[in-house]
User: Fold these one by one.
Assistant:
Number 1:
Amino acid sequence: MAKTKHGLPETKGNYQLRGLITGMKRENAFKNQTFTSGAERNTLNFGVKTDSISTIYPTIEGFKSAKAYLFKQAEKKGDKPQQKVVDWDDRYNYEEEGFFVIGTRVGLEKDENNKNIITTLTGYDAAQDVHSGLEDGTSVFVKGKLDYSSFKNREGDKIQSKKLLVDSVYLNSKEIDFEDEEYVSLSDFQQRLVYIGIDKDPKEDKFFVQAKVVAQNSIEDVEFVIYDKPLANTLKRNLKPYTAITVSGSIKCSLDTEEVEEKKEVWGKENSFTKVNKPVIREFVIEGANPETIDVETYTQEILEEAVRKLNEEGLQKSTGGSDQSWGKANEKQVEVDEDLLPW
């Protein structure tokens, strides 16, 4: 476990996408920045179009450094992996067998057997390599981790950020065609979270899960969505605030539209049309939860408040405050429940 400033284990999240590359030609898709400290960073923001309307935006980023960290997996079960620190210019030239740079796994070419040729690059190098090596329309498979942070803008409002950082990007095993009846969209996530509560939308069967995510140097407030009413009832009935649990689901995209009456004079019946307010709404929709991952001891309210206090002292805290028995999508069993006992 990586060392954290607050002393608590991170509640990690990850995702996987399959789709078509988009946005590589967009201005500022790739950025090289040099900061006043002299640090240099490469960042690539691109899109993965997972179906005809949904586009998810992962990020590859990394700093150039004086040193690079190399990693070698343990040869025997139970042994610890080995790590080496080398000069930056030697990050790909280290001669001892089995050591690889810690970074992003990239597979932009295939061998004669149609297998991806995979290279591990630093995030700094991978951002530039992927930008120059992939074109819009390329079929890819992307995996990575969810990264949460927050900050206050000039008006003092809290802005929450959720990045999809890339750990791996490969050419997909076959070309993607959204019109192919056998194509299955993939935009899944899994997240360990600290449950706080759940509220129902007053207009529809839509539920908002309030939670906290423990990042390496902060504790962030986050929100997820549930459309499955029985699952929402299960969470509300079984989970108390500050219970840790692992959930899973899909990153969903939908158009935000509203019907607006046309006000100008027209011939015949007055026309109405669909006005697009925002191009796309993206939601992290919980579809299942694993009760075997429940933990009521590690992240109590008192423990989290103490962790935030430590972060405040360090000047870091910017915000407050697979089992067959899974709840939701993974559970195929249907149980009859008295609806009068349900919260919604």
Number 2:
Amino acid sequence: MSERSTHAKQKSHAKLATAIAAQRVRMGVNVGIANRPGSPVFIRRESAVPVFLSFFGVIAATFIGGPLLGVMALALAGLAWVLLIHPRLRDRVYERAVAYATGGVAEFETMWKAGAISLQHADGSAEIRGPDGDWVAFGEALDG
């Protein structure tokens, strides 16, 4: 993408933020990229605490009840991760990423350059992905 003026970026960002709020544009979030150390929306304890609690719970169950109880605890921890923890974590990261990216041009560009977000019209046409897509042109092409 060629360098654009600060004014063009601000205007395009404002259009994008309005369109996202009005659900005319969908912002996709790559949760794997957004939820890693160094990302502005990453919260370490949110990812680490459930893993450590599960790990120590399995060890404690194995120590107290033997291998059978340990395997049962491991299965329960895996099921809890898939059904409860991961969906909530994914939703929280998505909400934080959208709020962060719509907060300002610099924030949007940080997420875009990392490849953590993508943009798509609500009807499913014209999807672009960061960092290679031209988000400024996408925003400029939006109606009022």
Number 3:
Amino acid sequence: MRMRTRWTLMSGILAVLMASGAAAATLDRSGSWTPPKFQPPLLPTNLGDALINDGSFELGPPPASAWTEVANPTCGRIGDFTSVWYVSAFDGTNDYWAGGYCDGGSGNVPLTSSVTQTITIPTATPQLSFHYIAFRPDADDAAPDGDHAYVAANGAEVWTLPLVRASDTYPEWSEAITVDLSAYADQSIALTFGGISEGGLTGNIRFDFIELTAGPAIVETATWGAVKALYR
């Protein structure tokens, strides 16, 4: 298997990058979490022929990005987060990070954010596919408070993941997650990836390598009426 050459980065270099890039965005509320070591992900086996526009976030943050980004408080989350997570993007250099904390001037506070773009769902490839990595260094809230990541079509959530420790995949990226969007075939939709953070603590998730694929073949079940029709 081919591994990313970025794993050869020396930990000292990454430590410098982390010190310069972690001030505005952190994985834990205190901003004190430190990684055990850098984790190089595997290269995807699919070379991205079916990626949606900027589906690997390589155009960088807006205004260059094909995605519209919303965050509260304002904290850009499309970029290279290797120096904060010690895990590089699943594909290429950049990805999208939802959840986590942002220093809005009064200390680290949980971040609610999303990225959206308008895409058309082809009849031949109506299945959405993506990868994520989830991590929550802070303890789960005493009572579940609704912290979750989501994918939405026209504002309706079609996939969700609670941002709790039980959902952690760190330091690994997930296998391809698939969502059937055939109900929107031949339509243009607002596709959104985001994270909702409530209360004092939250988790983190990064998304990457977003594709539209054909999905599994549909096997039609024959009926006796259909069989008889063949021999009329």
